[in-house]
Write a structure and sequence with these properties.
203 residues, mainly alpha, two-stranded antiparallel ribbon, 60% helix
Length: 203
Amino acid sequence: MTETECSCKVGRGVERFGLAEVNDDLVRRWCGEGRERQSLRELATYFNQQLLGAAVESADEAPLSGEIENRYRLLTADDVSSGVRTQTRRRLEAAGVPVEEVESAFVSHQTVHTHLTECLGVSREAEESDPETRRRADRDRIRALQSRTEVVASDALERLRETEALALGEFDVLVDVTVLCDDCGRQHDVGTLLDQGGCDCRE
Ligand SMILES: [Zn+2]
Ligand SMILES: [Zn+2]
């Protein structure tokens, strides 16, 4: 368990909303121990969702799974209309959630970075490691997402097929990520591009 008594914005949120375990989570997610490494932006979203979740829980409105993510999106995403946002705020307020306080406790990815490096003294090794290792780590991350997409798509198609909403025989789902180099017009499979370290036109 990572002990911290820091008074940065993350630390204050941890204390105010009783999120003692979140520090360990942030470190693990950042370093990728036993899981995919997450970006600082993803970590900021994760932290803010934990805040919102804790506030909703302590207001005695038991969150259904997935609901916090959705509410967080409605409160913060650029593509949500101000009407929908206001409605979301009102609903949370009506349920006893201190929405304004929660929103002003939301942190940015820079704040998470400062908290991890300065308050918790963590450095992410790969940030200092060689380019090949870093490329491999990202290639693995992208691959994991590709196979997750394949699974989600296959499941959806299977379900539709079973209920006869989709006319399809046996199938395979293939997810390829192609990178187009604007300088030379070559197309690369993202994995190959990362393996070879760049586009041929740059040699
Ligand atoms: Zn801190
Ligand atoms: Zn090129």
